[in-house]
Amino acid sequence: MMPGPVKTFYKKGGYRLNYILAREHVHTNENKRKVMNMLKKLFGLDKKEEKQQKPEVEMPEADGKDVLVSPLTGKAVSLSEVPDPTFAEKMMGDGVAIDPADGTVVSPVHAEVVQLFPTKHAVGLKTVNGAEILIHIGIETVNMQGEGFEAFVKEGDKVAPGDKLITFDMDLVKEKAESTITPVILTNGDEAGDLQKEENIDVSRGETTIMTITK
Fold it and tell me: Among residues 25, 27, 121, 136, which one is catalytic?
């Protein structure tokens, strides 16, 4: 025999009513989901969610060698051509500079973002082999206080070669800063065994090798 409450429930026809309400509830929820999906597609919110759910980058094993590709499209030149003695005289470390053709900066190597300046004009990366890389966008761009710069990463993010880091307004930098030339510096070169640089060549971001660091 069924327990009292359940028996009473059946006697009053509650089961059928509850079944109908449940079906209506399911159908209503399905309709809501359909409407929400339509709205997401209409306003591009589905793409925004995909961007937020970007899978974490799998880092390679340390092997003592880092090959850096250019973070920008343009021309790789000697640091001596940078109009700032801090970089030209290698006070921050050795490396190369990129005279950029556009304002998109990508990661040159598998690394962790260890520093993103509030002004977004510079970003610090650390590779699995311990090389510390500084990408300093333009000269005297710190005075722009982030105007014209947009970051696509945050500190602690893992990035792969070619992943977008920052974009900047080239025309605005030319107008408000001293130069768009962008030093790419190995800041802990004293820990590196060998540094090979590629200079005076045309480079494509995420593709052309500009530095090889060996411990």
Answer: 136
